[in-house]
Amino acid sequence: MLYALDVLGGSVNRVDPRTGEVIPLVSGLRDAPDGIAVDATAGTVTFSCMGEPDGPAAPGEEPAFTTRNGSVQRIPMGGGDPEILVARGTFVTGKQLVSDPATGRLYWSDREGRGIYRAEADGSGLTQLVDTRGTGPSEVEEWCVGIAIDTAAGHLYWTQKGAADAGQGRILRAGLELPAGETAASRSDRETLWQGLPEPIDLELDLGAGMLYWTDRGVGPDGNTLNRAPIPAPGAPGTAPTVLSRGYREAIGLALDTIHHVAYVSDLSGAIREVQLGSGAERVVATLPGAATGLALSWE
Fold first, then answer.
1. Which three-class secondary structure state does DSSP give residue 206?
2. How many angstroms separate the CA atoms of 296 and 75, rounded?
3. Are 55 and 66 in contact (CB under 8 A)?
4. If I label 225, which of 173, 256, 272, 282 is the partner at 20 to 30 A Cα–Cα?
5. How far apart are the first and last CA of the chain?
6. Partners of residue 212 on adjacent β-strands
7. pLDDT per residue as tens digits for the range 130-151
8. Which InterPro entries is this protein grouped with (predicted)?
9. pTM score, two decimals?
10. Helices (H) and strands (E) in the chain, counts
11. In whole angstroms, what is the distance from residue 220 CA to residue 108 CA?
């Protein structure tokens, strides 16, 4: 099953990828949900929120999210009222969120806050792992969006998207733990794996195949795509990615089914697309009424 967020409808949805059936689990959220993780064992769906926008958006543009009102919330897999795990205002703008299946630990990006955070499964133990403020030529080039973790190797991956359609996007890597004596701002173990990407957004790892996948919402032909590249060895840069799928309307969410060799990609048109990684065949699984953001896959 897929779990998908609709940022405009403020909803968390259960989507059957075989039939396209969409079941809203909660709707009317005003906190702009963006990143999502499912724990089938615990029976919970956890999601990050960007918070209420500063005001209405200009025609054809996204609203601004500069107010510090991001949060992490949770609902039962069957639906219900959200429980707030990380209080509103703890960070600025919650983006992609992932969990460690072994511990339930949560990791997420803070876009306008320019950082990466970790917390325990119940929201306690909040730790900032990365602070990108002051590290880029401009503030927008410091915005963190996508995130993935490799607990076996002890690695954290994230995207910094840069300005819209500007070709400033980067994918970086650092340790899952802060180096001794260093801070989130001063840590010396950051590696820039890719740079000059159109506008990379969400990440997924296929550790068995040694591959990194990501969505990109930048300008075509290399933007608004699904991409794949080998995970670089420590200290090595990333190689040129392979574009697996094109033609999205602001590609955002990504969920990877490594058993069936399928990727699911969402975009701001509301569409959720299934991409067969072997043949390249594609189909639209479902279309949410608003704008689709985070995706997560759950085996039930």
1. strand
2. 14
3. no
4. 173
5. 7
6. 205, 229
7. 999 999 999 999 999 999 999 9
8. 6-blade_b-propeller_TolB-like, Cueball_EGF_LRP_Nidogen
9. 0.98
10. 0, 24
11. 27
